[in-house]
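[retry 2/3] GG23250: previous attempt timed out, resubmitting with same input.
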Amino acid sequence: MAALRLVCLFVVLTIGLVHSLDIPKIKDVPLLVKTLKNLNRGPPHQVMTKRVNILEKWITQKLDNFDASNTQTYQMRYLVNDEFQTQGSPIFIYLGGEWEIEKSMVSAGHWYDMAEEHKGVLVYTEHRYYGQSVPTSSMSTDNLKYLNVKQALADVANFIETFKAENPQLANSKVILAGGSYSATMVVWFKRLYPDLIVGGWASSAPLLAKVDFTEYKEVVGQAFLQLGSQQCYDRIKNGIAELESMFANKRGAEAKAMLRLCDSFDDQNDLDLWTLFSSISNIFSGIAQYQSNNDIVYNCDYIMTFDDDATAIANFVYWGWGMGRCIDARYQGSVEYYLWGVENFDASRPWYYQTCNEYGWYQSSGSSNQPFGTKFPATLYINLCGDVFSSRYGNEQINVNAANTNAYFGGMEPGVENIYMTHGALDPWNPMGHGVEQGATIIANASHCADFSSIKPTDSEEMRASKEKLAGLVRQWLA
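[retry 2/3] GG23250: success.
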């Protein structure tokens, strides 16, 4: 019965995971894209405990903030909660990233609680090219030239100046920013570029260093399963994936395909297909670790350990995690076709992938031996996707140059900013790209990605509560 309960629990969790993705109904999403969507979704929605009147508004932004001769504009969406507003209210802006903005981030949680304490106005801005703030008629590679973080930060600067100018009560208000993941990076970089427009900011899980071959990510995922699960669970993952790799390498591909329920179109003699498959296997574990809370990893490890052998355990585990389709389409070409489909069919996958090619890299590869997910998904997989989806100019050399340019412009691990409170979960796979304790960040034990946005509550760990209270104290100082 215990094993059956775990199976049922895992199926419920993973079906919910798959259904929560922003997947267009008119086109099947190939395996790699589906797992990447899960990893690139926005911070966890907050639990709303009361009805709040949220206003949806729009602001006119320049298409190109750095070319005075380009007079084209677009409409950027934002959400406002003014329930606490009074004369001189501080402005609490949560920055949107590579997702569609939603009401809960300005209706509940720690950010909301601090705004209530200070009678602040809450705002949630939507990033260009995401959600409903799409500035061009298509997402062709040429149109995507207006998508980069410098343009997005300039949008925020214009928003702050316009919002204050259009609201007489707020003309002299202080502004603080918050963000999670990529939008946390934006908080740090906004303070670097526009220091006079804000008095402080909160950056939860901010990657600061652009890096093409992001080998450390899978290392932390493995550590999460080791520390929160068990050595036995870690070994089962490592041995099961190694066995599946060996089967494909030793002419047992048909058997491995059957175990994994792969579609007949999968070519186990094609490196790109194999890399796509094993990246997608690792991404199931990554999704659990990146957003783990409570006993998620324990539950999943318990399920994995119910099987008699390692490879069968992994095959069944990832099949459920992938959504239990009739057969699993793990072809590399399917990902290429989907991203090309996104030229005319708006979806967050294509613009975010463009940003990785053009600015950051952050390709979560199997390049480290200190992780349990095998050796079959090098950064080359993602680099090839850049070239096949956007332009042949996005080869290994150009993408590395792009990441180096990002680091040079924004300072990498030395952004040179003040009054920015940075937090990371100790088991957040993204934390190696951000500040650690030695640089002044707060590292929250056992926590993962963007795990600290909820209100202070009795179930918070001692470290989590201390971090939230420290932030509240800093906000009081900034707004004094």
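[retry 2/3] GG23250: The longest strand covers residues 73-81.
[retry 2/3] clearing retry counter.
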